[in-house]
Design a protein that fits this description.
The chain is mainly beta and 157 residues long. It is 13% helix and 47% strand. The protein has one domain (4-156). It contains one helix and ten strands. Strands 2-1-3-10-5 form a five-stranded antiparallel beta sheet. β7 and β8 form a beta hairpin.
C-alpha cells in the first residue's frame, strides 16, 4: 500500500522543523532536516540496511529523521536547543540518552523514565516510547564552524 501523502507530509515536516529551529538561533546556526526510510535489502545472500527516500511507506516501516546543524557565525553559541516534534503518524523507535523527550505536546522535557502519562481510568502510568510527542537536544557549545548531525528513528504507526 503506497502512502505518498504521508511521505510528502514527512518531507514537509522535516523542512518546517529546520526553519523553526534556525529562527531561534537568529540565523547563526543553520539547520537542515531530512527523513529517510530504512530498509533491509538482500543482495546475493547478504543483508544490508539502506536508507532511501520515503516515497512508499507502510505501517511498521522504520524512518530515520535527521537534522544537520552548522554554526556559521563568528562566535560560539552556548546551550543551543534543537527541538523536533514527532509527526503523529509515527512513534519513537528507541530511546537515546542524548536527548530529552516530551509527552505533553512540548510543554515539559525530561528523560523518558521521569515522565508519566495521565490515563483516564487508571490514573498516571509511566510514559512509553509511543507517548513521545517531541525530542529535544541541548548542545552545550557550538564553536564557530562546528557542525554535526542529530537523528532519531521512528516507526510508522
Amino acid at each position: 500500500m503506497k502512502n505518498n501523502i504521508f511521505a510528502d507530509f514527512l518531507v514537509f515536516a522535516a523542512v518546517l522543523f529546520s526553519t523553526v529551529g534556525a529562527a531561534h538561533a537568529e540565523g547563526v546556526v543553520s539547520l537542515d532536516s531530512d527523513v529517510k526510510v530504512e530498509r533491509s535489502v538482500d543482495k546475493d545472500g547478504v543483508k544490508t540496511t539502506v536508507l532511501s527516500e520515503p516515497n512508499d511507506v507502510i505501517p511498521g516501516d522504520r524512518l530515520v529523521f535527521s537534522t544537520e546543524y552548522n554554526n556559521q557565525g563568528a562566535d560560539a553559541v552556548d546551550n543551543f536547543v534543537v527541538t523536533n516534534p514527532l509527526p503523529g503518524a509515527v512513534k519513537l523507535a528507541e530511546l537515546d540518552p542524548s536527548f530529552l523527550v516530551s509527552v505533553d505536546g512540548g510543554k515539559n522535557y525530561a528523560p523518558l523514565s521521569d515522565l508519566t502519562v495521565d490515563v483516564d481510568i487508571v490514573g498516571n502510568r509511566p510514559a512509553e516510547l509511543a507517548d513521545v510527542t517531541h525530542i529535544r537536544w541541548v548542545l552545550k557549545r557550538l564553536d564557530p564552524g562546528a557542525r554535526g548531525t542529530l537523528s532519531y528513528q521512528a516507526i510508522v504507526r
